[in-house]
Automatic annotation (TrEMBL):
SUPFAM superfamilies: NagB/RpiA/CoA transferase-like (SSF100950). Residues 336-361 are annotated as: Disordered. The active site is at D240. It is an enzyme of class 5 (isomerase). The record marks C160 as: Transition state stabilizer. The keyword Glycoprotein does not apply. It catalyses: 5-(methylsulfanyl)-alpha-D-ribose 1-phosphate = 5-(methylsulfanyl)-D-ribulose 1-phosphate; 5-deoxy-alpha-D-ribose 1-phosphate = 5-deoxy-D-ribulose 1-phosphate. Substrate binds at R51, G52, A53, R94, Q199, N250, K251. This is Methylthioribose-1-phosphate isomerase. Catalyzes the interconversion of methylthioribose-1-phosphate (MTR-1-P) into methylthioribulose-1-phosphate (MTRu-1-P). Also catalyzes the interconversion of 5-deoxyribose 1-phosphate and 5-deoxyribulose 1-phosphate. Part of a bifunctional DHAP-shunt salvage pathway for SAM by-products. Its EC number is 5.3.1.23. GO terms for biological process: L-methionine salvage from methylthioadenosine.
Amino acid sequence: MTRLLQTIEPILWRDEQLHLLDQRVLPHTENWLAFYDSDAVAEAIKLMVVRGAPAIGVTAAYGVVLAAREAWFSAGENWQEALIPALKRLAASRPTAVNLFWAIERMQQTCNTLSKYESPEPALLEQAKRIHQEDVKANRTMGQYGADLLDNDSIVLTHCNAGALATAGFGTALGVIRQGFIDGKIEHVYVDETRPWLQGSRLTAWELMQEGIPMTLQADVAAGALMAGGRLDWVIVGADRIASNGDTANKIGTYSLAVLAKYHGVKVMVVAPTTTIDWSIENGSQIPIEQRAHSEVSEIEGHAIAPAKVHVSNPAFDVTPAALIDAIVTEEGVVSSPSKEKMQQLKKEEKNDTNSISDRM
Ligand SMILES: CSC[C@H]1O[C@H](OP(=O)(O)O)[C@H](O)[C@@H]1O
């Protein structure tokens, strides 16, 4: 049973470099890539070498460490000004996961406390490692909070990958499923393949099978029939950005699942650290939705499956209204039937800037 507590960690800082497990080639190849250049880290986030809102935030924090090293070597006491362009390039890597912007802003706040006459790297590395450790701690806390909501013999469905691979370890939605399994509450997990990037079939299936958690992989379009024909207790998913009223952006297809769940009396649980909440936006309509490459839909592993020059739409996320969510689980506690008023219980401190955090980058 201890195996379940030693989960995958896709992000490592070692030998003064950032090491990322390349999630583009999982599950058949486990390949680690080393990064000592912040622009290469920004590209790795954009290309989804690393993905998942919390993992993107932790990775960006280490990207700031590398950018500060570069700025100190190139500009000396002017490192803080020299750092800004690299921070903007990190912030431009992907638009939806607010953890990216939260992490960069927190690292910037650390920069503001540092002397211009000394290398910023040691202090910034300490802050990045703190962000890294805080994420794993939060995931284990949320895992227990979410597992406590499950009845015995629960049958659950998850979409995309909100596992150890989407975080610094243990996972958010999969953290609840892991802890639920440890607590003997999980009878079975259905895993959506999650087209077009296939995070479910390639990443979530890999994580759950490694730990012997009983699961079945299915096509995304099978979810409705599953709910209609069998017993399903919970849809459990992660999040990329949660508005202050509880509206939640998550992988495309989550909204469809929530509508089906409401129709079939299945409960919906969103699991995300409070760093995923964007207090600067009122509702989900203000969340920027990433549009990704058309080839992700029209090709599979580089092989065209659609006619040449076909017109494609490829939004990477959709927004689930708070009214369709039964519980938002965070490390600060659980909000049942979320609303603007109920979400306030999670607010740690007043946010000074009224502009959306991602607009400030
Ligand atoms: C724990 S957050 C995981 C979240 O991120 C995924 O998106 P992507 O794989 O494109 O980064 C998906 O929305 C997951 O729910």
